[in-house]
Amino acid sequence: MSTYSDKLKSPKWQKKRLEILQRDKFTCFNCGDKERTLHVHHESYINGKEPWDYPDEYLTTICDICHKNTHALKTEFEKFAYRVLMCRDRDAEPEIRLSMRSIIHLQLSGIVDSEGCKIKRK
Ligand SMILES: [Zn+2]
Ligand SMILES: [Zn+2]
Fold this sequence. Notes:
With 122 residues, the protein is mostly helical. The chain folds into 2 domains: 1-64, no CATH class; 72-122, no CATH class. 41% of the residues lie in helices and 8% in strands. A two-stranded antiparallel sheet has the order 1-2. Helix 4 (76-85) crosses helix 5. The protein is globular, with a radius of gyration of 16 Å. One zinc ion binds at residues 39, 41-42, 67, 71.
C-alpha cells in the first residue's frame, strides 16, 4: 500500500505532470505567474483513480500561492466560484469571472464572510 504522496513520486505521475506543465506553457492558469513553483492540481478527485490516470481536463497548472488558496476553499460557494474562474473557456462570461475573482479575493483576505455579503469588522 502506498500513500498518496508516494504515488506522486511515481514516474507515471512525473510524466503526466510534465505533459500538463507543457500544455499550460509552465504558467499559472489562474494568475499567469511564471516565476513561482508550479503545481499540477487535480480539479476534483475520482474514487479509486491513480493520480496519473485522470483525463487532462481534470489537471491544471497553478502556482504555489494559487494552489494554497485553492486548497483553502471550503464552502460550496467558494468552490463554485473557483470552478467558474478556472473554466477553460477564457472568453466565457468575462463579467461573472471578474466579479467572482474579486469576491474570492475579498474572502481570502477575510473581509467578507463565506456568503460573500457581510463585511467583517477587523
Ligand atoms: Zn492541489
Ligand atoms: Zn497563480
